[in-house]
Amino acid sequence: MSQKKYQRTRVKICGITRSDDALAVVAAGSDAIGLVFYGPSPRAVTLEMAQKIVQSVPAFVTVVALFVNPTVKEVRQVLEGVRIDLLQFHGDEESDFCGQFQRPYIKAIRVRQASDVVASSVRFPDALALLLDSYKPGVPGGTGETFDWSLIPESPKPLILAGGLKPENVASAIEQVQPFAVDVSGGVEVEKGIKDHSKINEFIKEVNRVDRS
Fold first, then answer.
1. Which of 14, 18, 58, 179 fits a 20 to 30 Å CA distance from 118?
2. Residue 3 resides in a domain
3. Quick check: is 83 in a domain?
4. Statement: the pTM of the whole predicted model exceeds 0.85
5. CA distances for 100 relative to 33, 66, 79, angstroms
6. Which residues are CB-neighbours of 60 under 8 A, at least 6 positions away?
7. Rounded to whole angstroms, what are the CA distances from 191 to 15, 38, 41, 185, 194?
8. Is residue 4 part of a domain?
9. Tell me: the pLDDT tens digits for 89-108?
10. Is the pLDDT of residue 8 over 70?
11. CATH, residue 130
């Protein structure tokens, strides 16, 4: 294994729908929480739900808003109503769309081949990072399935690894990919949208353990 590119792997817990889950995520040491503003998702939140959740999130924990092919109006409504630090676009959005909201953003890529990552680094020059997720036809993300991590090439942008991560495999994922961050949702749930606090703690402990090794 090559020398680590980052001294510490950041963690985002996505699909938060309840304030007590947000509190558990923060207490466990996560760097970010993800709120899903995509109606068809079982983890979707309303503006009112998001406002209540964000009240539980202190300084230095990033609040990420996830969208899938939204309208400009939909994004602006969220930004006007909720404290959002970072945008995440999971659909077919182009760079000009993603960059128009006076917020930093990350772009999610469903990986089928190495060239997907390379091309996206060029297509989204303003993205702070690329989030790499599993490809499944017709599904924009949240598949709960891993993909072939050997497809991931060197990238000029920080990479966030997602797709099927859980406490049992996150250490090996970090050892192989050495991403800037990992992103988990279904892998730390009791059911869709309801987090398992013990799994959250175990997931972050595993990230910290492999970082120290």
1. 14
2. no
3. yes
4. yes
5. 22, 15, 12
6. none
7. 11, 18, 13, 10, 5
8. no
9. 999 999 999 999 999 999 99
10. yes
11. 3.20.20.70
Tell me how many domains the chain contains: 1
**Residue 121 resides in a domain:** yes
Q: Which domain holds residue 122?
A: 10-212
User: What is the rounded CA–CA span in Å between residue 162 and residue 185?
Assistant: 9
Catalytically annotated residues: 14, 133
Whether pLDDT at 142 is above 80: no
- Nearest to 12, CA basis, from 88, 83, 67, 80: 88
- Residue 1 clears pLDDT 50, i.e. is over it: no
Please give the distance of CA 145 from its chain centroid, rounded to a whole number: 14
Question: Rounded to whole angstroms, how far apart are CA atoms 144 and 160?
Answer: 15
Q: Which residues contact 146 (CB under 8 A, 6 or more apart)?
A: 134, 163, 164, 165, 169, 173
28: its two tokens? 């466990």
Task: Give per-residue burial for 47-77: e unless 16+ CB within 10 Å, then b.
Answer: eebbeebbebbeeebbbbbbbbebeeeebee
Measured CA distances, 164 to 121, 171, 182 (Å): 23, 13, 11
| Residues ≥6 apart with Cβ < 8 Å to 57 | 22, 26, 33, 63, 83
Q: Which of 191, 173, 193 shows the shortest CA–CA distance to 182?
A: 173
